[in-house]
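REQUEST FORM: STRUCTURE PREDICTION
Request ID: SP-0412
Submitted by: Lab K.M.
Chain count: 1
Length (residues): 219
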Amino acid sequence: MHRERGSFAERLEFWGRKTIKRWSRRGKPAVGLWASHLLCVLDRQSDRRAEAENMAALAAAVGIPRKFLSRAVAATNGLVSFLPGPPVRLVLHRKRLLRGKNAVDKIRGRIPRSLRAWLFDEDGHRCGRCGKKFSPDELEIDHLVPLALRGADEPGNWVALCGPDHREKRASFQYGFIRYYRRERVRGSVGVRFRDGFFWPHVNGRIRTDRRSDSKVLA
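STATUS: Completed
RESULT:
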Protein backbone atom coordinates (compact mmCIF):
# COMPACT_ATOMS: atom_id res chain seq x y z
CA MET A 1 0.00 0.00 0.00
CA HIS A 2 2.84 2.35 0.83
CA ARG A 3 4.43 1.79 -2.60
CA GLU A 4 1.11 2.57 -4.30
CA ARG A 5 0.65 5.80 -2.38
CA GLY A 6 4.20 6.80 -3.25
CA SER A 7 3.60 6.01 -6.92
CA PHE A 8 0.47 8.13 -7.00
CA ALA A 9 2.30 10.97 -5.24
CA GLU A 10 5.10 10.86 -7.81
CA ARG A 11 2.67 10.86 -10.71
CA LEU A 12 0.69 13.71 -9.18
CA GLU A 13 3.89 15.74 -8.99
CA PHE A 14 4.77 14.74 -12.58
CA TRP A 15 1.42 15.87 -13.98
CA GLY A 16 1.55 19.09 -11.98
CA ARG A 17 4.96 20.01 -13.39
CA LYS A 18 3.93 19.01 -16.91
CA THR A 19 0.76 21.10 -16.78
CA ILE A 20 2.59 24.18 -15.48
CA LYS A 21 5.26 23.85 -18.18
CA ARG A 22 2.72 23.32 -20.99
CA TRP A 23 0.65 26.39 -20.13
CA SER A 24 3.68 28.56 -19.47
CA ARG A 25 4.79 27.86 -23.03
CA ARG A 26 1.36 29.01 -24.20
CA GLY A 27 1.73 32.28 -22.35
CA LYS A 28 -0.91 31.36 -19.74
CA PRO A 29 1.17 30.39 -16.67
CA ALA A 30 -1.68 31.10 -14.22
CA VAL A 31 -3.83 28.43 -15.89
CA GLY A 32 -1.16 25.78 -15.37
CA LEU A 33 -0.55 26.83 -11.77
CA TRP A 34 -4.25 26.66 -10.88
CA ALA A 35 -4.61 23.31 -12.66
CA SER A 36 -1.72 21.90 -10.63
CA HIS A 37 -3.30 23.33 -7.49
CA LEU A 38 -6.62 21.67 -8.38
CA LEU A 39 -4.99 18.25 -8.74
CA CYS A 40 -3.44 18.55 -5.29
CA VAL A 41 -6.64 19.80 -3.64
CA LEU A 42 -8.75 16.98 -5.05
CA ASP A 43 -6.14 14.34 -4.24
CA ARG A 44 -6.32 15.36 -0.58
CA GLN A 45 -10.05 14.64 -0.44
CA SER A 46 -11.04 11.19 0.83
CA ASP A 47 -13.29 10.59 -2.18
CA ARG A 48 -11.14 12.61 -4.63
CA ARG A 49 -13.97 15.00 -5.44
CA ALA A 50 -15.49 18.36 -4.59
CA GLU A 51 -19.06 19.53 -5.01
CA ALA A 52 -21.16 22.63 -4.43
CA GLU A 53 -24.46 24.24 -5.39
CA ASN A 54 -22.98 26.38 -8.15
CA MET A 55 -19.72 27.24 -9.91
CA ALA A 56 -18.93 30.18 -7.62
CA ALA A 57 -19.26 28.00 -4.52
CA LEU A 58 -17.28 25.23 -6.17
CA ALA A 59 -14.45 27.63 -7.00
CA ALA A 60 -14.38 28.76 -3.37
CA ALA A 61 -14.36 25.14 -2.16
CA VAL A 62 -11.20 24.30 -4.12
CA GLY A 63 -9.55 27.69 -3.56
CA ILE A 64 -9.45 28.85 -7.19
CA PRO A 65 -10.70 32.22 -8.52
CA ARG A 66 -14.00 31.71 -10.32
CA LYS A 67 -12.67 33.00 -13.63
CA PHE A 68 -9.88 30.39 -13.62
CA LEU A 69 -11.86 27.34 -12.51
CA SER A 70 -13.12 26.14 -15.90
CA ARG A 71 -9.74 26.74 -17.54
CA ALA A 72 -7.98 24.87 -14.74
CA VAL A 73 -10.29 21.87 -15.25
CA ALA A 74 -9.60 21.87 -18.99
CA ALA A 75 -5.84 22.17 -18.40
CA THR A 76 -5.79 18.87 -16.47
CA ASN A 77 -6.42 17.17 -19.84
CA GLY A 78 -8.87 14.56 -18.60
CA LEU A 79 -7.42 13.97 -15.13
CA VAL A 80 -10.34 15.93 -13.67
CA SER A 81 -13.93 15.70 -14.89
CA PHE A 82 -16.61 18.33 -14.44
CA LEU A 83 -20.13 17.03 -13.75
CA PRO A 84 -22.80 19.72 -14.26
CA GLY A 85 -25.15 18.30 -11.62
CA PRO A 86 -26.82 19.73 -9.67
CA PRO A 87 -24.85 19.82 -7.50
CA VAL A 88 -21.84 20.67 -9.66
CA ARG A 89 -18.89 18.34 -9.05
CA LEU A 90 -15.22 17.93 -9.80
CA VAL A 91 -13.83 14.39 -9.82
CA LEU A 92 -10.16 13.42 -9.92
CA HIS A 93 -9.51 10.20 -11.86
CA ARG A 94 -6.62 9.02 -9.74
CA LYS A 95 -5.76 5.94 -11.81
CA ARG A 96 -5.21 8.15 -14.84
CA LEU A 97 -2.29 9.72 -13.02
CA LEU A 98 -0.37 6.51 -13.71
CA ARG A 99 -0.68 6.88 -17.48
CA GLY A 100 1.87 8.54 -19.70
CA LYS A 101 -0.82 10.31 -21.69
CA ASN A 102 -4.43 11.21 -21.07
CA ALA A 103 -7.28 12.32 -23.27
CA VAL A 104 -10.53 13.96 -22.31
CA ASP A 105 -13.65 11.90 -21.72
CA LYS A 106 -15.42 13.18 -24.82
CA ILE A 107 -14.67 11.08 -27.90
CA ARG A 108 -14.82 12.69 -31.31
CA GLY A 109 -18.07 11.81 -33.04
CA ARG A 110 -18.28 11.19 -36.77
CA ILE A 111 -19.39 14.31 -38.62
CA PRO A 112 -22.12 13.38 -41.12
CA ARG A 113 -21.80 14.53 -44.71
CA SER A 114 -24.88 16.77 -44.34
CA LEU A 115 -23.28 18.63 -41.42
CA ARG A 116 -20.00 19.03 -43.29
CA ALA A 117 -21.88 20.54 -46.21
CA TRP A 118 -23.80 22.82 -43.82
CA LEU A 119 -20.60 24.05 -42.17
CA PHE A 120 -18.79 24.77 -45.42
CA ASP A 121 -21.82 26.70 -46.67
CA GLU A 122 -22.15 28.65 -43.40
CA ASP A 123 -18.48 29.56 -43.56
CA GLY A 124 -18.89 30.61 -47.20
CA HIS A 125 -16.42 27.90 -48.33
CA ARG A 126 -13.78 30.17 -46.83
CA CYS A 127 -10.84 29.11 -44.66
CA GLY A 128 -11.24 30.56 -41.19
CA ARG A 129 -7.55 31.45 -41.09
CA CYS A 130 -6.41 32.75 -44.49
CA GLY A 131 -9.86 33.81 -45.70
CA LYS A 132 -9.44 32.26 -49.17
CA LYS A 133 -12.28 30.31 -50.78
CA PHE A 134 -11.88 26.61 -51.55
CA SER A 135 -13.88 23.74 -52.97
CA PRO A 136 -15.43 21.35 -50.39
CA ASP A 137 -12.81 18.66 -50.99
CA GLU A 138 -10.05 21.18 -50.17
CA LEU A 139 -11.55 22.15 -46.79
CA GLU A 140 -11.28 20.38 -43.45
CA ILE A 141 -13.22 20.78 -40.20
CA ASP A 142 -11.33 21.99 -37.16
CA HIS A 143 -12.37 22.31 -33.51
CA LEU A 144 -11.67 25.89 -32.46
CA VAL A 145 -11.24 24.74 -28.87
CA PRO A 146 -9.54 21.32 -29.24
CA LEU A 147 -11.15 18.22 -27.81
CA ALA A 148 -7.96 17.75 -25.78
CA LEU A 149 -8.86 20.97 -23.96
CA ARG A 150 -12.50 19.90 -23.43
CA GLY A 151 -13.77 21.71 -26.49
CA ALA A 152 -17.33 20.75 -27.46
CA ASP A 153 -17.65 18.35 -30.39
CA GLU A 154 -20.55 20.37 -31.77
CA PRO A 155 -21.10 22.67 -34.80
CA GLY A 156 -20.65 25.83 -32.72
CA ASN A 157 -17.07 24.79 -32.06
CA TRP A 158 -16.30 23.87 -35.68
CA VAL A 159 -14.73 26.01 -38.37
CA ALA A 160 -13.63 25.30 -41.95
CA LEU A 161 -9.88 25.43 -42.59
CA CYS A 162 -7.76 24.75 -45.63
CA GLY A 163 -5.30 21.88 -45.34
CA PRO A 164 -2.13 23.94 -44.68
CA ASP A 165 -3.77 26.09 -42.00
CA HIS A 166 -5.34 23.05 -40.36
CA ARG A 167 -1.94 21.39 -40.12
CA GLU A 168 -0.41 24.56 -38.69
CA LYS A 169 -3.04 24.85 -35.98
CA ARG A 170 -2.98 21.17 -35.01
CA ALA A 171 -4.52 20.36 -31.60
CA SER A 172 -3.88 23.76 -30.07
CA PHE A 173 -5.93 26.80 -29.15
CA GLN A 174 -4.57 30.17 -30.23
CA TYR A 175 -6.74 33.18 -29.45
CA GLY A 176 -5.81 35.09 -32.59
CA PHE A 177 -5.52 32.22 -35.08
CA ILE A 178 -9.09 32.28 -36.48
CA ARG A 179 -9.92 35.38 -38.53
CA TYR A 180 -13.25 34.38 -40.10
CA TYR A 181 -16.22 32.61 -38.52
CA ARG A 182 -19.55 32.04 -40.28
CA ARG A 183 -18.66 34.57 -43.00
CA GLU A 184 -17.92 37.23 -40.39
CA ARG A 185 -14.57 38.86 -39.82
CA VAL A 186 -13.50 38.06 -36.26
CA ARG A 187 -13.18 41.26 -34.28
CA GLY A 188 -10.22 40.94 -31.93
CA SER A 189 -9.74 37.29 -31.06
CA VAL A 190 -11.71 34.15 -30.27
CA GLY A 191 -12.42 33.64 -26.58
CA VAL A 192 -13.80 30.64 -24.70
CA ARG A 193 -16.69 30.07 -22.32
CA PHE A 194 -17.46 27.03 -20.17
CA ARG A 195 -21.00 25.61 -20.44
CA ASP A 196 -22.51 22.16 -19.81
CA GLY A 197 -19.12 20.69 -19.00
CA PHE A 198 -17.35 21.81 -22.20
CA PHE A 199 -15.70 24.85 -23.74
CA TRP A 200 -17.38 26.83 -26.53
CA PRO A 201 -15.95 29.65 -28.65
CA HIS A 202 -16.87 33.24 -27.84
CA VAL A 203 -16.80 35.12 -31.13
CA ASN A 204 -17.74 38.75 -31.77
CA GLY A 205 -19.50 39.08 -28.44
CA ARG A 206 -21.51 35.84 -28.58
CA ILE A 207 -21.08 32.32 -27.21
CA ARG A 208 -21.45 29.99 -30.21
CA THR A 209 -23.29 26.93 -28.93
CA ASP A 210 -24.95 25.50 -32.07
CA ARG A 211 -25.45 21.77 -31.56
CA ARG A 212 -25.98 18.80 -33.84
CA SER A 213 -29.53 18.55 -32.56
CA ASP A 214 -30.44 22.15 -33.42
CA SER A 215 -33.12 22.22 -36.12
CA LYS A 216 -31.48 25.10 -37.95
CA VAL A 217 -28.29 23.06 -38.28
CA LEU A 218 -30.01 19.94 -39.58
CA ALA A 219 -32.48 21.75 -41.82
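NOTES: The domain at 2-98 is CATH 1.10.10 (Arc Repressor Mutant, subunit A).
Reviewed by: T.R.
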